[in-house]
Amino acid sequence: MDKKIEISNVESAVLGLLLEKPMYGYEIEKIIEERKMRQWTEIAFSSIYYVLKKLEEKQIVESETENKCGRARKIYFATDLGKNIMREKVKELISNYEKTISGFDLGMSNLDILSKEEAVECFENYIKSVEHVINRIYEVNSTVKKYNRPDHVLALSNRLLAHLNTEKEFIQEFKEKFKENEN
């Protein structure tokens, strides 16, 4: 029986990009930045080459060295095995709810150690930070539309916007009730 090859969400993010086209590491980083993928992935700039190495070890991607302008660089591309593994990973990812762990929830569970004024100030700062992210997502949407990306790419941004707008509304309402509450 064949052992099932598992890949992490970070590995999936990189593999998904390589399924679009072969790329070198820095090109992957540019696309991650351009698409603001760090809003919904946990991939750090410093981990891209580490992830590529892991994917190569699993024979999910392969690389070739290309000489361009007197410089050698590795171009990575997905293998057929990589495509099949990614197909199964995508099915898994969009079939199951995955809980999110938020530092905000931890803070809320310990809210009673703050004064009312401190808590209200923190809520206002949180709302500002959510608004900042909402504005960045609108920028992403403009880029997505500009480059005629597929509808599901725009849906990523719109899903995040829906979550953020709901989060902002919840915190605004909670902040007002908290300010009114004497206890």
TrEMBL record:
TM spans (from-to): none
Domain spans labelled Transcription regulator PadR N-terminal: 14-87
Protein's recorded name: Transcriptional regulator PadR-like family
Organism: Methanococcus maripaludis (strain DSM 14266 / JCM 13030 / NBRC 101832 / S2 / LL)
